Amino acid sequence: MSTPMLLGARAILAAGVLACLAGPWLFDANSLTVLTEFFIVVTLALMWNLLAGYADIISVGQQGFVGVGAYAFFGFTALLHMSVWAAVPLAALTTLLIAVPVMAVIFRLRTAYLAVGTWVAADVLMLIAGKLPGFGGGSGTSLPIPVVKQFGARLGDRIDMFYALSLGLALIAFLATWALLRSRIGLGLTAMRDNEEAAGSSGVDLVRTRILCFLWTAPFLGLAGVMTALEKLRVAPTASFNITDWTIDIIFIVVIGGIGSLEGPILGAILFFLLRQWLADFGAWYLILLGVISIGVILFEPKGLWGACRRWGFPDILPAGHAPGPGAPERVAGPDAQEAPAARTVG
Amino acid sequence: MADRNETVSAGGPPAEAVILALAGVSRRFGGLRVIEELSLTVRPGEILGVLGPNGAGKSTLFNLIAGVLPPNEGSIHIMGRDVTAMTVWRRRRLGVGRTYQVPKPFAHMSVFENVLVAATHGGGLSIPAGRREAQRALALTGLAALAAKPAGTLSLLNLKRLELAKAVAGKPRLLLLDEIAGGLTDAECEDLLAILTAIHREGATIVWVEHVIHALKRIASRLAVLHFGAIICEGAPDAVLADERVREVYLGA
User: Fold this and answer.
1) Are the C-beta atoms of residues A330 and B138 closer than 8 Å to each other?
2) Which chain A residue shows the shortest CA-CA distance from B102?
3) Searching chain B, which residue's CA lies closest to the CA of residue A347?
4) What is the pLDDT of residue B249?
5) How many CB atoms within 10 Å of residue B219?
6) How does pLDDT run across B11-38, given as a tens digit for each residue?
7) Residue B87 and residue A207: Cβ atoms within 8 Å?
8) CA-based nearest residue to B207, from B180, B242, B240
């Protein structure tokens, strides 16, 4: 548990955030586009991790809310001719509103059944999106040029703007989730992560906490969906509701990075993008390698890279916990406990 | 109002004099009847010891009182309220703390955070107030020095103390102890009894399921013996332990 290591890690993180904030002045257009996608993926990974890593809701349908966000944005701008700046928050709100009935249905299920339920719900949303009039049916449609131009008259300006928006989204998603985890609710969530039954016995309302988490993720997923529409400049059922891009890859990222931590999803996303850059030329081998890595991590290090770091005594770079702090009162009864290195083991 | 009906339906003494009342409670697992038509009343300030051979239904009884399992028949009242259909966490907030026979720590959280969860969620406190309450519970159970340790690294004795600290955080009025003395040495058991005595002095009513009879006998004000899901003998500790039937089914004498 070395403090220099922790300070070093925090320095790297701070430098990384600063570099991202200065991105438009530091990077070329290609890098900015890749980073834009990276921030979308980080946002999605943070949300999937919150659900699966803490609230024990394994979702294989989060692409459903990504798609809803993209389609809502298209609807408000291209069809209702609203300003893009009004459409962005409205898209988030729409996703939240759609999440309520979806939740009412899938929360009747638990564990693996719930996972299948989320998948079915996402597919239903995709099929509905393909039938909606004005959205281009099954093959989708492009964002009208006047809508796109609201983000900047020139291509370079738009790349900068999309970059700034997705960076802002990732930062807000991260900070808000961090604040949630540090709150009283987050304390209960972290307890649920470690032992659900004991959390319930300690007074944590398992049902309400799950509901809150599920609804918490919806607007962020919707906003990520808006960003996917801007990135591709179009919406289409198969692209906007893509299970591989918005869920399967995300599961890979969270699992290799470290489920049930804030560092894990970010670490996993960095690793995923590096692997993709290096191995893009290997075609199918790239996917096979991702699969092998996933299986390896699940077998040998189920808590991922960050889990391994924790086991080696590395403290959380971004702690969401609560230190005991000074001011402990005098003991009242019984001798104080000590952790003797005796042969007693936890059964 | 509904409250009055609930009180009446519990039967027996009036609500203020009863902290826990089980009336005709049965629980089956498939065809296996684990708890049968069990009725039990606990008054405030009591320390009720529950004895019984393995398989007598002690853990099931606890799970029914704590709310982990619903009964198939009968009703459970806590402090005059019908809690038969109430969730575990709502019962905890109402004032029912419980320990697990096999400790269930939040392994990746610190000892302090473990107790903070119980103080804030179970005790209904804000985080600042919960922090003070967690410190109190840790001091009471002698864990203050280990507050910053990850709970997963504790020894069995300290895990049992942690179970206790979590159960008493927020000062629940009814404390359910599930074989908390099991596996402890005599000296450790003495410490535990001192802690329990302090908790009881603070006003908690205790229901304690235990195999370690000598520990139970020391502080229990009443004993109940469970056999095949029914209470076969109940009363003052010495009288119960001297009872012919109890000696037969439990002590094997």
Assistant:
1) no
2) A347
3) B156
4) 78
5) 17
6) 444 546 899 999 999 999 988 899 999 9
7) yes
8) B180
